Please model this.
Amino acid sequence: MPVYDHIALKVLTPEKVISDCLVSRVEVPGTKGRFVILKDHAPLISSLSAGEVSYCSGGEVGKICIRSGFGEVNDNVVTVCAEV
Model:
């Protein structure tokens, strides 16, 4: 798929970058409940609770377990700063 059909996902911890890839969707564990981020999602910042950050990239599903953190969506870039 062309790059313009995807969003960038960056998952960071205080120690290192865990993931930096193009994905078609991201699902995160918000403190008020899980939510899905798709291309052209409205900008937002949310606190995250313990759970899985799951994403679909190239037809494959990836999962990253986190303990807590924050997520930001802006201009088709999803940045997750978390403790794992």
About this structure: The mean pLDDT is 95. Residues 14 and 29 are 19 Å apart (CA to CA).
